[in-house]
């Protein structure tokens, strides 16, 4: 009887699981094992192979070799958008207001332009 080894890379550590070769191992069974061990929700986990391809829940492991390596990623809740959507909603309005007051700027000697203009 042979054994199969699953190497799982979590965000903080690497864990190894051993299975007998007669055991059917799927993505959902690995998720359930991780959830039981680390008190997580299965819906918050994403399993991916080392190439980055996401492993589906019904995908069977150990089809080509006796060793599999997976990485675990946690889902983050998304929002309505960040800075990119803010820029899109502003349109061209941000560039339409050109600065005309340069009094607070400094020249090459470090003096404020309003002071230089006041001395003239």
UniProtKB/TrEMBL annotation:
The keyword Ion transport does not apply. This is SDE2-like domain-containing protein. Keywords: Cell cycle, Cytoplasm, mRNA processing, mRNA splicing, Nucleus. One of its GO terms (biological process) is RNA splicing. Its main location: cytoplasm. Residues 78-120 form the SDE2-like domain. It is found in: Cytoplasm; Nucleus. It comes from the Eukaryota. It holds the Pfam family SDE2.
